[in-house]
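Supplementary Methods, section 5.1.

A reviewer requested that the exact input to the structure prediction be made available. We therefore reproduce it here, unchanged from the version used in the analyses.
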Amino acid sequence: MREITLIPGDGIGPEITEAVKAVFSAANVPVTWEEENAGQTTFDSIGELIPSTLIASLKKNKVALKGPITTPVGKGFKSINVQLRQMFDLYSNVRPAKTTPGVNTRFENVNLVLFRENTEGLYSGLEMFDERLQISDSVARLTRVGCRKIVRAAFEYANKHNCKKVTAVHKANILKSAGALFLSEASEIAKEYPHIQYDDKIIDNMCMQLVIKPEQFDVIVTTNLFGDILSDLCAGLVGGLGVVSGANIGNDMAIFEAVHGSAPDIAGQGKANPTALLRSAIMMLHHIDLKEEGERIEKALDATLANREQCTGDLGGSASTMEFAQNIISKL
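The structure derived from this sequence is encoded token-by-token as follows.
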């Protein structure tokens, strides 16, 4: 029995978390949950955004499932997601995007995975403001080690899952230092995987290519800000943030998360779609070598998504959050 840190989150987080727990229980998944929260909820109750009990749980269990978290709006509050990623060196943000029968989109046959460097780049927190000149600077800091780690993670994934191509996305034509460093490391590591096709795209061209012919891409790897933007773009190709999974993975820890917001406007109303968190939980099962359980739940989820009436309102159905979960359970 594997113990997992469970972070319900804010807003709709507790509702979709309960739905995932119900599916896992019905599927007899051999995990136990250690619940610890973060964000607005804990700040309101104990005055801490990331409690020490949560940090201790993460260090002990090494794997977590996280609902959407709200960072309080105001000066001095750093993104909780960014803090967790940097605190535990979760350098690899992994975002699959795959078309699903029953989820209507403008595109077909999309099946790609984006690897986004998670701790460096423009999210390094290196910002300066000159009051006298009224100039603000944000530094996009990349390290050779950081570039190597994220590119290698992408190629290792491609190698493990028999993917045909890895595409590095950059802006080396303008960013002559940071962009060139990332591109040069990607090119060098690609030589170690001669059986995998490698190419690179400038970020603006990449955005255009994704909305013209997304099926041409397989595994994409890029830096932090570009990856942040592209991962949401890719989610849009397959139905939106409500149906895609996400993972933050380091060398010895991983946090799997719903990548959508906490949606406080519909919290407590039973309207929330738990698909994104459930798919993230399925990714987690593969990560901890419970592949059979993950595939079983995935088949039940896909069968439910194919029947629109059994889904939540955002997917065209009339089911509540827990009714949707029960529909999935009935197909296990």
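The longest strand covers residues 92-98. These observations are discussed further in the main text.
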